[in-house]
Amino acid sequence: MAGHSHWANIAHKKSAIDNKRGKLWSKLSKALIVAAKEGGGDPTTNLKLRYAINDAKAGNMPKDTIERSIKKGTGELEGGNLEQVLYEGYGPAGVAVLCEILTDNRNRTAPEVRKIFEVAGGKLGATGCVAWMFDRKLLVRVAKEKIGEEALMEVAIEAGADDVRTEGELYEIIAEPESYATVCSALEAAGIQTDGSEITRIPKDTVDISGDDARRVLKMMTALDDHDDVQTVSANFNIPDEALAELEL
Hints:
Layout: H1 3-21, H2 25-39, H3 47-58, H4 63-74, E1 83-90, E2 96-103, H5 106-119, E3 123-124, E4 134-143, H6 149-158, E5 163-167, E6 170-175, H7 180-189, E7 197-203, E8 207-208, H8 211-226, E9 230-235, E10 237-238, H9 241-247
Parallel strand pairs: 8-10
Antiparallel strand pairs: 1-2, 1-3, 2-9, 4-6, 4-7, 5-6
Helix pairs in contact: 2-3, 2-4
InterPro entries: Integrase-like_N (IPR017856), TACO1_YebC-like_2nd/3rd_dom (IPR048300), TACO1_YebC_N (IPR049083), Transcrip_reg_TACO1-like (IPR002876), Transcrip_reg_TACO1-like_dom3 (IPR026564), YebC-like (IPR029072)
Main location: cytoplasm
GO molecular function, one term: DNA binding
């Protein structure tokens, strides 16, 4: 399994549990704020906002909370002053890690993220230390039960996607970030319901890990993913199938 896909699949399953607890509302709210700030508060003309709203509804976020987040993004309410930051560094076994951050207080977030790295035996690095190992891509998830692979591939590739691949119970559509509107609009027009979309980082190459290294890396990834200010976390690890079975995930 590719490192990104493996972690993305674990994180996707974990988010279903977290959503029930309301743990992801902060992240969903920030995604709404940024989408509204970048493209306006009307989801009929702002596709990114429309998908952020869909994700928020899937996370059981109340309608009034969604509306407040959008108004923060458009400046109608205070609280929309978020800074986008990319933190990067190394985890256990030399695994490269990238964290996309949305924060209203970098002085608070930086030491908290640094501590997560250090507790895991890793180290937060300087700007640019590992970013070159990743490609920035659009990732759209579609449940296998919604559509066949050939039909999905036909729509996605025609819309400009780079690839469609299988990961567990999901299909993952990979495309350039600039294709966000084109790909998502094509899926919507074809009546294909998605299980979420994001602009994320996909490793160009991966490193194999297993045993205690794999456990430490996954523990660190979970801690980063659980941080309210971390919107996405990506890494370049690969856990071979035989090693994955031993982890009892």
